[in-house]
Write a structure and sequence with these properties.
The chain is mostly helical. The protein is built from 16 helices and no strands. The chain has a single domain, classed as Growth Hormone, Chain: A, CATH 1.20.1250. The chain is globular.
């Protein structure tokens, strides 16, 4: 067994912030790919919203390969090259997605082919970089600091969303396809440079693992034990119920991702730059919600448990979505920006509380299965995100055939999403209460295990 590293070998807070900059770089590319580019497809090119929905769903489907990429960084000498290579591939995919939109304006099928290739690269890049980054965090961050480190890294990713959307919005107007490609390519290059500098010298060299040669038993388990371990974890009532909660809540969380900006374009007449800025306001709300929970749930403050914030965040998200329904009915007089900020705030409070709960529950149950539990919940999150974005977009397309105003179709989806958040609140109250008498809030004690942000990065 490898001896535990000394405290001096772990990252300090500055090192953790540098790791957060890598997540910021990931987020800056992802936000343009999943928000601005899909809006241009739906509004400017008048394509069915199901098209970008299917492309984003495909990139989420590829996240099931995360264990293989993590295994590669485990058995190699360093994780840093996997992260940098992943971000480079992600940047190529993001730029390719922008080029595919420009091509779609003149040549449909070649544009579709390029879009599929681009989103394949996006999925591979996110998985390779994100998985290796979380693995590096797990090995380089002291157990006492893993929970706050995960919060810092997640919030810095949201900061990447905010900064990118605000700056990009200034350069996208007056809109043109050339501007879209130029902005996306520039953001990708800057993200790669920032991530490379942030990782420089942060990971000590280590010997490559020799699992097969040194431990035949481990080799056999590597080949056959994954399904068995996954089945054992699924048989745990607590893990199974929490998995269902993660799936339903993340389904609700993601249904509006691909339709919010098109809704703003149809109902309020916003330009691409203005709707991109609206997405920035939403992510600002997410950032504020996360910050509030991180402070309020700390034992020195003690304002609400993680369970309370998780369930309350679901209920508040439902209320904000009902506000978007009213926005569609009373546009353009309704305060759209304030409603979107409130939605982001509620989503952020729910998300960071759910992350904390997830970390606290990862070590629960029999045997040492923290990684399998986090993987199970991560898989549920990936399926829900991919399905949510596609279902939301496809439902909007379907309903548009039965209504006279396009915005009305989006409001129906928002109402359905609100109902899902109410169901999530009920499931969360049941799934989390069972451990509340035996497990302290994650901020009140050191927690073992990785944090998987509730996102693709």
């Amino acid at each position: 067994m490898r001896p535990a590293p000394s405290d001096a070998a772990y990252l300090g807070w500055l090192g953790i912030i540098r790791m957060g900059l890598v997540q910021t770089a990931l987020g800056s590319i992802i936000v343009l790919t999943t928000s601005t580019i899909n809006r241009v497809m739906v509004v400017e090119l008048a394509l069915a919203a199901a098209l970008p929905g299917a492309l984003v769903a495909w990139h989420y489907a590829l996240q099931f390969l995360r264990p293989r990429w993590g295994y590669g960084s485990d058995t190699g000498g360093r994780r840093t090259p996997w992260i940098i290579l992943g971000i480079a591939i992600l940047g190529l995919g993001g730029t390719g997605a922008a080029l595919s939109v420009a091509l779609l304006a003149t040549s449909f099928w070649p544009g579709i082919a390029l879009a599929i290739l681009a989103f394949t690269l996006v999925g591979i890049g996110v998985g390779a970089a994100g998985t290796s980054l979380l693995a590096l965090l797990a090995t380089q961050v002291h157990p006492d600091r893993r929970a706050p480190a995960a919060t810092i890294v997640w919030m810095m990713m949201i900061a990447g969303f905010v900064v990118t959307t605000i700056i990009a919005s200034a350069y996208l107007d007056p809109f043109s396809m050339t501007r879209l490609v130029t902005v996306t390519a520039s953001v990708s290059v800057i993200a790669l440079v920032v991530a490379t500098l942030a990782l420089w010298g942060i990971e000590p060299a280590r010997k490559a693992a020799r699992i097969i040669e040194s431990d035949p038993k481990a080799s056999t388990e590597n080949a056959t034990a994954f399904r068995t371990a996954l089945s054992e974890v699924w048989d745990e009532p607590q893990a199974r119920r929490f998995t269902i909660f993660v799936f339903v809540s993340m389904l609700a969380y993601s249904m509006q991702d691909l339709i919010l900006e098109p809704f703003a374009g149809f109902a309020f007449g916003l330009t691409p730059g203005e709707s991109t800025k609206l997405a920035g306001h939403q992510h600002s709300g997410v950032f504020m919600g996360m910050a509030l929970v991180a402070i309020a749930a700390h034992p020195r403050v003690g304002f609400g448990s993680l369970r309370t914030w998780t369930v309350g965040g679901c209920i508040a998200s439902a209320a904000a979505l009902l506000g978007l329904v009213l926005a569609g009915l009373f546009a353009p007089a309704w305060p759209l920006t304030g409603t979107v900020v409130l939605l982001g705030f509620a989503n952020g409070a729910f998300a960071v509380a759910a992350i904390g709960t997830m970390m606290g529950l990862a070590g629960a149950g029999k045997e040492k299965r923290e990684g399998i539990r986090m993987g199970l919940w991560g898989a549920a999150q990936a399926i829900a995100f991919g399905a949510g974005g596609f279902v939301g977009a496809a439902a909007a397309d379907l309903i548009r055939g039965f209504v006279t105003e396009p915005a009305d179709a989006f409001t129906v989806v928002f109402a359905a999403e609100a109902m899902l958040f109410i169901v999530s609140a009920i499931l969360g109250a049941r799934a989390i209460i069972e451990t509340s008498t035996t497990q302290k809030p994650v901020f009140a004690q050191p927690v073992s295990g990785d944090a998987k942000a509730v996102t693709t990065a």
